[in-house]
Fold these 2 entries.
Entry 1:
Amino acid sequence: MTELEARPEALQLPGVQDHPKEVRPRPMSLGERLYLPLLAGMTVTLRHFFQNIFRTRERVTIQYPEERRDYSHRYRGHHILTTRPDGSVRCVACFLCATACPADCIHIEAGEHHDVNVEKYPVVYEIDMLRCVFCGYCVDACPEEAIIMSNNYDMAFYSRSQSIVGKEDLMKPFTFDPGKLGYRPRFPEEEEKRAAMRREAFDLVAAAKAKGEPQSRVAAG
Ligand code: SF4
Ligand code: SF4
């Protein structure tokens, strides 16, 4: 046996008390024995409950999805692929958005466009929404204003494959309301004429879809 094991008090520094060696629970008061603090907590809960039921003060919560908050027109929500006035996709498959994307979630396959002035269009344009961080760099990088963002934040997916959104979904009708548009170039400084042109293009796509025209004309370049 060493000397320290034989005399543990030798480790004790002068003036420093030893740690307590036994547990002594704090004795409960009579109120604590009768669960009165619990009733005090329940009172707070019930006060908020009745205030919300009888609306005696403004509620901070909303009944989503029936009620929705208004978000800024710079909100970075679900992406939109914009169209030309003839309804074809505006994207020219230059890959700048995919290159700028920090999440590496844009997949493009380019095809040759029949118009030599356009040269290319995206045969496949997919965004993996579960990888996307909604930074808006793709919008900033695009030279054609072919990709913008919306105020739409309804993105619930039941499978991994559903989260990979293709070209036609990116041109879906929820984008037609300019009030639901989000982050996009030169907003709010953009000219009214430009906004009207976009609106006209959206209307054309909506009308074509309502008539049941083949998606190929709408979605293909
Ligand atoms: S918002 Fe950002 S992360 Fe999402 S696709 Fe665009 S560049 Fe990629
Ligand atoms: S969306 Fe814009 S940046 Fe991306 S490939 Fe199309 S034209 Fe290029």
Entry 2:
Amino acid sequence: MSVTDLRTTTAVRVGRVEEIPLGEGRAFVAGGVQIAVFRLRDGSLHATQAACPHAGGPLADGQTDVDVLVCPLHQYAYRWSDGASTAGAFAIGVYPVREEDGTLVVEV
Ligand code: FES
């Protein structure tokens, strides 16, 4: 059993889906954890840690496409799938997120 298997998560309601314009992200606090939630133009939802591990950039203000999130400060790109940097440097935490009756629910 890995360490990851031992981690427990909590489902936290953080806001309404319509609070996030298509193609953008917004910062929330979920269970005491600062996160950024994104609603891509294809309607998919993603959640990451709020601060970039490089120098604390506000990831909620980053540019998005279907594959990556780009930090607004120094343009490091992070994959939605696993949070890894496309440059092989830092990685960000990613969290499961879903919509339930218009409410954003994040597992932290
Ligand atoms: S703070 Fe995000 S890339 Fe530098």
